[in-house]
Amino acid sequence: MASTRVRIAIDAMGGDRAPGEIVAGALRAREELGVDILLVGDPQQIEAALPPKTNLGQVEIVTAQEAIAMDEEPLNAVRRKRNASINVAMDLVKQQQADAVFSAGHSGAAMASALLRLGRLPGVDRPAIGTVFPTIVAGKPVLVLDVGANVDCRPKFLEQFAVMGSAYSRYVLGTNEPKVGLLNIGEEDSKGNDAAVRAHQLLRENSQINFIGNAEGRDVLSGHFDVIVCDGFVGNVLLKFAEAVGEVILQILKEELPQGLHGQIGSALLKPNLKRIKQRMDHAEHGGALLLGVAGVCLIGHGSSQAPSIFNAIRMAKEAVDNQVLQRIQSQYTLERENG
Q1: pLDDT tens digits for 175-203?
Q2: Cβ 28 vs Cβ 8: under 8 Å
Q3: Which residues contact 123 (CB under 8 A, 6 or more apart)?
Q4: Cα separation, 316 vs 324, whole angstroms
Q5: What pLDDT, on a 0 to 100 scale, did the predictor assign at position 2?
Q6: Among 302, 255, 259, 257, which Cα is nearest to 282's?
Q7: Segment 110-128, tens digit of pLDDT
Q8: Contact 130, 289 (CB under 8 A)
Q9: Longest dimension (CA), the chain
Q10: Which of 178, 198, 180, 177 is nearest to 189 (CA)?
Q11: Closest CA to 99 of 328, 337, 319
Q12: Alpha carbon of 53 to those of 22, 47, 48, 59: distances in Å?
């Protein structure tokens, strides 16, 4: 690629608010983050979503006439619609015309497309979707994976998730010696079903990670762990529940602030604090989830993503590229194989 700027391929047709919110967030990222954006999709719809007086010479649009709907079976749709926007975006990464790809569309289709077009990293049996949660310790997030890619997991998969998650936490989130936990129903080594017990043993014996034991549900947001691994069924339930709790708390804060003049004065005084609360709790501030384990940087966003979420997802993609996440994960597996 000729440009030294990070280039992000955006599935402009994916998501409930595509292409308008997708385009808005992408344009903001282009200006504020200094990245090059490739908007993939129907050129007419994308151009119609651009702000008035936009210089079309500064906007790179890649044509893709098809899109995958949220109600389609992902694997069949990805194979049948070869010119779908998510497929074209993935091909740009495969052909090294883009450094990363983002989609707020069908998450199953995004994962299927990534596996078919980019493939898995050597040593990785299953890719995992990792998402960042806030904790009660300010500035100390926790990475949870898998949150939806694999409903059933073998113990070996969970071990691989821990290796990948540790690399991401260390090199992107800036955590020194990330503390890894296994989501379980108790702290004791013997707790959980047979798969959990066997996974615990594998994690304990892996010298590549700093495994400190089981994490109960109450520990997820405690700040005691930097990486928590679980199967995609449990992880997805946890993700959706955490998002709902955050929305409930923010709504309660709005409703319980005093009304009238006193309320206006109080709200004005509390505005900086409320803004920081929203930034720590609102999932839109994190933007998307990284698909770890495929041979390319892939970010998956919420179907309901709006421009701020799109912007933050692109920021995460840029950070993953800048910090060479793929190379770091691959080096971990190379070292593991060499050590036997």
Answers
A1: 999 999 999 999 998 899 999 999 999 99
A2: no
A3: 160, 330, 333, 334, 336, 337
A4: 12
A5: 47
A6: 302
A7: 999 999 999 999 889 999 9
A8: yes
A9: 69
A10: 198
A11: 319
A12: 18, 11, 11, 12
What six digits make up the tokens of 231?
Answer: 């199967």
What pLDDT is attached to residue 130?
93
Percent of the chain exceeding pLDDT 90 equals 63
Please name every residue paired with 144 in a beta bridge, in sequence order, or none if there are none. 131, 228
Strands 297-301 and 288-292: antiparallel
DSSP-assigned letters across all residues of 195-254? HHHHHHHHHHH-TTSEEEEEE-GGGTTSSS-SEEE--HHHHHHHHHHHHHHHHHHHHHHH
Nearest-angstrom CA–CA distance, 165 and 147 = 12
> Which of the four pLDDT bands, split at 50, 70 and 90, describes residue 300?
very high
Tell me what the pLDDT averaged over the chain comes to: 87
Question: Who's near 78: CB < 8 A, 6+ residues apart?
Answer: 68, 84, 86, 87, 109, 112, 113, 116
> Once rounded to an integer, what is the mean pLDDT over residues 228-232?
96
Could you tell me how far CA 135 lies from the centroid of its own chain?
Answer: 17
Cβ-count burial 225-256 (b if 16+ within 10 Å, e if not): bbbbbbbbebbbebbeebbeebeeeeeeeeee
The helix/strand/coil state of 145 is strand
Q: Tell me: pLDDT of 80 over 90.
A: yes
Residues 6+ away with beta carbon under 8 Å from 57: none
3-state percent breakdown (helix, strand, coil) of the chain, nearest 5: 50, 15, 35
Which has the closest alpha carbon to 161: 123, 134, 191, 127? 127
Closest CA to 219 of 231, 209, 227, 208: 227
DSSP three-state, residue 66: strand
> Is the pLDDT score of 284 beyond 60?
no
Q: Is the pLDDT of residue 1 over 60?
A: no
Residue 214, CB-side half-sphere exposure with 13 Å CA sphere:
18
